[in-house]
Every structure is written in structure tokens, then in C-alpha cells.
Amino acid sequence: MKKVWFLLLLFNIVSVFAQQEPNLARYQSPDEKLKFWLKYTNEVLDSEDYPKLLIAAQKGIELSKNHLAYKSRFYFLKGNAYEFNNNQNKDAAINYELALKYAQQARHLRNETSALMRLSYAYYALNETLKRKQLVAYIKQVVDTTKNTNTKSVLYGSLGEYYLDNAQYETFISYQLKAISYKKLLKKTVANDETIGVSYSQIAAAYTKMKQYNKAIEYLNYARPYIKTSPYISAFSCNYYLQCFVPLKNLDSIQKYYNLIYTYPSKKDSLFLNLSFANRSVSEYYANTGKINTAFNYAKKAVLLGEKSNYEDIIMEANAVMGRILYEKGEYKKAIETLNKASKNALTYDKESFVNINKKLSQSYAALGLWKKAFYYNEIYTKSNDEMMQESAKQSIANAEARYQNKTKGQEIKNLSTQNTLKNIQIQEAKKQRIFLISGLILVGIIGLLLFQQNQNRKKTNQKLQLLNQELDEANKIKARFFSILNHDLRSPVSNLIHFLHLQKENPELIDEEMAARMQTKVITGAENLLSSMEDILLWSKGQMENFKPHFKEIPITVLFEETQKHFSGIENIQISFEDPENITLNTDENYLKTIIRNLTGNAIKALDKTPNGKIIWKAWQENEVQYLSITDNGPGGTQEQFKALYDDSEVIGIKSGLGLHLIRDLATAINCKIEVSSQEDSGTTFTLVFG
Questions:
Q1: In the structure, what pLDDT confidence band is assigned to residue 664 with cuts at 50, 70 and 90?
Q2: Which one of 174, 256, 477, 579 is at 20 to 30 Å from 104 when CA atoms are compared?
Q3: Consecutive H or E run containing 102
Q4: d(Cα 606, Cα 491) in Å, to the nearest integer?
């Protein structure tokens, strides 16, 4: 993105229509022919007809022969033709190298300056790191020795871009401010004003990278007066504003500048580039605010438009954002595929992007359980991030030291002789101190290692104890649950049996033969049901002893209602009815739900103990794909305080009261069932079980 500014300055600031090819036969001297042919070639460049520019530049090279300055310029223009015609950077670099060579031979500083500027970008685009580093060293020599204002303004900008590409933002800003100061000394023109505006905007981009967004907006505001006449550069400026307002989460400003970008006329290359950048920024905003689907739609546009732009750094950045969003969507395989695309050129164009891409690759592989791959990319991320931080720190220290050394240089030269003597003494003392210091550090390291090992052993022991305590606590909870189940499911039938035996023993005269036969049949049936319930509960308890967890399967409610009716068949004076007109089937644990139904039925029977004509109604129905079970009695009702055990884990309870509600609550939670209670005084109580 940042490189395209200078392309626009070179070729979009002035719009000129190409003239007809000049008739060189009209000019006698070679110099006149070269002069007019160069003028024509520059006009072809301004018209952006790059195939025609390639032909014109080649003819200019052939005309130049031994005119090194002209030859340098025509090779430069030939490089432009390759570079700006679908980014043929390899061929562009070859011609820029020749342009630089002939400019140096001709001692033509202006041509040399232009060639150095474009060659630096070509090496960046080709990932020629070593060549670019060597070129930057030479550029520093040129700016340190020249007094030419134009050369300083251009090459300080190129140096700044080199450090921007390597994420050394403070150094970049320093060089760019120097470039601006020299540009302001040049003759005031529209083109020069726009280069100043571009430089301010690039400084804003650096502050954005450093997350100093308000500072970035300040420099973008500095740039606005210089670029107001250029719709092309204004479009890029809007994208830089977006980069600031996205992390500030200022949606109104984001929408303003996003819509504004679409209003600026642009050539195809800058159009696709700007739109890709804008959609990527908006995608990041929605991703940061959790609206992943909206973010995905903008990211998809960014990738498509980036591919149309043919700029590899724009494509890389769009894929990086898309990879992040695919990760957020949980589409980890697609995220890995997209992030790998972005990773190919990330280190070349933006170290920070390279770091973030490898972080997301590590997280994506981890999400898939591919720990070896996740560890591999995490190592790359950690190493790259550390290197970037170290480079930044080293550069800041180096800059501080350089400033200090420049201020004290004169005094140091005067005192050099005395200092040498003192330094020899200091060196000897320093050697002794170093020995003591190293010995001390070794000792401290050994002690630290021992303490670390002791701490690790303590942590392992504590973890084992904590695990054992958790297992013991879980075992106690399981035991308590089974005692609760046994207490509530068996008490009622046993109580009925004992009641009859006491009646038979203490008041035999109240029982006639017909009643005795009927009650005997009822007792036998109740005892058989009791035995069946005991076997059912004990077998279930044995199966759940190691791990008290539900086992879900499809259960017809009719089956549970029939078993419940059979279980409570010995209850007299209370009418128990069951309604399941829709033949509901539930996906749940049979034993959990059976225990809940029995406990609720038992509680309802207790509530109707003193109510004449007691009624209990069980119902099953379905609404909007949600299944319901309800039990309603016509008892005396109750207060919310009496049902508190259903909702409050901390409620203190006894064995004879409330424990059933705790049991119901725990079992219902385990099978994803919600319990609702409605109770009115003298009108009865309704418990509703909600599934779904």
C-alpha cells in the first residue's frame, strides 16, 4: 500500500495527452534529436501508455549511443514501462540498474537520484533483501555528501521507506521529516505540494503502526492542504483515516471515509488497490466488534479486489485479514490455506503482518489438534516477534547514542589523551569486577534454578492433591444423590406397607373379611412394586457408581407414565391421571427423568394428605418444537420460600424436607431440563418441565 503513493506522484499528478511521434529528420544534431525524443517519451509516460513507452524508451537507448546521461534516462523510462505494466519488477530492476550505472558514469546526479529511488522499490518488490541493504548503504553516502536539495528530499524519503518496510518506525519518521524539510525548500508547484502531502500521510501510517492513532490523524490533517487537488492521493488518504478510526471504533467516521473512497475517480490499478484496502479495514472493524459474518463479506471483497490490483503486498494483507476471520468463524482448514497464501510474501512487505500471520497459523493448527504444526508456527511467531521488538529497541538505543556522541564529540577529542590513561586503569578494574560479577551471577543462577525446581515440585504435588480432593468431593456428591433417590423413591411404598401392618395389629376389629382381602391384595401389589423399584434403582445405581452421568436416548412419555401409575397404584383417596394425547417422545435419560417424575408425584401426594378429593394430573405436550411435562395438584399450594431449594445451591436442608427438590434440581440440570413452578394458596401447585 505505502509504495503506491510514489507511483501516483510520478504518473498521476500531471495529466498530459501524448503527442504524435516527432519527425527526427527535422533535427540535424544528435543532441536536438535526443532532446525532442526524450520530451516525447516523457509525454508517453504521462499518458500511461506503457507498451508504447517501452518502444519509445528502447528507441531512445539506441539513439543515445555514447550520450551517457540520455542513455541513463531512457533506461529509467524503460524500467518505468515494465514496472507499471502489471508489475514486471524483475525486468524493471534490470533497467534501473543500467540507468544507475550510466548516471554514475555521466556524473548526472538527478538521473542517479531517480534510479536509486525506483531501484530501492524494485528490490523491495522482488524480495532482494541483501541487494536493497547494500543500495541503502550507498544512498546514505550520497545524501551525506551532496548539497543538492532535490536529491536530499528524494533520497531521504527512500531511506525512510526502507526503515518503514522493516518496522523501524521512529527511524522512518526521522528520515521522512528530513525529506519534508528539503521538499519545502524546492520551488512551489502542485506536484511538489502533493509529494509533501504524501510524506505527511506516510508518517501518519507509521504512527498507525505504533498504535498512536490520534497522532496519525494529526499528520493526516497536516497532509490535507497539500493533496486536496488530487483525487487519486485523496483516496489513499481516506484509507489512512480508516486505519485510524477502525481501532478507535468510530463507526460514523469509518462509514464516512469508506463511502468517500468510492466517489474518487481512479485508474484501474489504484481503484482496485484503494477499494481492497478500504474493504479490508472495514472487515477488521467488524471482526473486532464480533460481527464475523459481516466482516467475512468485506474481507471477501478485499481479497477479490486485491487480486485485481496485481499488487502482492495488497493481496497479502487481504489474505491475512481473511485468514483471521476464517479462524474466528471456526473454519480452521480454510484459515490455514488462506494464511499460507499470505505468508509467502509477508516477511518481504511487512514484518508485523508476518508475525500476526504465523500467530494465527499456530492457533488454527492448535484448534485442529495438530500440535506439531501449531508448535512449529508458534516458534516462528515468537522468534519473529522477539526479533522485531529487539530491532526496534536496538535502533532507539543507537539513535540515542548517536545524538549523544554528536554533542560530546568535540570535548571527547580534547580529552582523548587523558581518557586513554584512565581507560587502561578502568579496563583492569573492569576485568576484576567482571570476574566477581560473573561468579555472582552463576551463584544466583544456581540458587534460582534450585528454587525453580522446588517450586515446580510443589506445584505438581498441589495439583495431585487438588485432583484427589475433586475426586473425593465428586464421590461424596454421588453418594448423597443415591441416598436421596433411595430415600424418596422407597419411602412411600414402605410407609404404606407399614401403615397397613400397624392397622392390622392394633385395630383388627376395624377390618372385615372383604376389606382384609382387598388390602392384602393391595399390600402384595405394593410389595411387588416396591421390589421392582428397588431392583430398578439398585441396578441403575451400580451402573452409575463410577461416573454419574446421563445416557440420552429416545423415550416415549407413555412408558414413563405407565410405570409411574403402577408405582403409585397403592395410593387411595387421590386420583392420579396421565394425559399424553400427542404421544410425545423425549431424547433424555430414562432413569433421571423417571426419578424426577416419581419425586414430584410423591411430593404432590404429600401435599394432598389433608385435602379431600385430591387430584394429580400429569400432562405432556409440545409447542414450537419445545416439549413440556407438567404435574398439577389441587392441594393447599405453597410460597416461593418453600421452593427455594430448586434454585439455590446454598439452601440448608434436612432429610425430610427439601432434599427431594435438591435432587430434582440436580437431575434436571444434568439432562438439560428447566423447571418452572407456579403455586397459589388454596389453589394448588404446578411444576413444569421444559425440554428444548
A1: confident
A2: 174
A3: helix 89-106
A4: 12
Torsions phi, psi of 574, nearest 5? -130, 125
Q: Which helix (H) or strand (E) holds 596?
A: helix 590-607
Which range among 28-37, 83-92, 639-648 shows the weakest confidence by mean pLDDT? 639-648
**Residue pointed to by grid coordinates 492457533:** 363
277-322, pLDDT tens digit by residue? 889 999 999 999 999 999 999 999 999 988 888 788 888 998 999 9
Helix or strand holding residue 187 (H, E): none
DSSP 8-state code for residue 369: T
Cβ 659 vs Cβ 652: under 8 Å: no
- C-alpha 12/C-alpha 6 separation (Å) is 10
CA distance 541 to 94: 83
DSSP code string of 51-92? HHHHHHHHHHHHHHTT-HHHHHHHHHHHHHHHHTTT--HHHH
Query: Which residues neighbour 241 within 8 Å (Cβ) at sequence distance 6 or greater?
Result: 217, 220, 253, 257
- Indicate yes or no: pTM above 0.90: no
User: Residue 368: in which H helix or E strand, if any?
Assistant: none
Q: Would you state the cell numbers that stand for residue 634, as one nine-digit string?
A: 389441587
DSSP assigned state of 638: -
Question: Measured between alpha carbons, how far is 212 from 207 in angstroms, rounded to an integer?
Answer: 5
Q: How far apart are the first and last CA of the chain?
A: 51
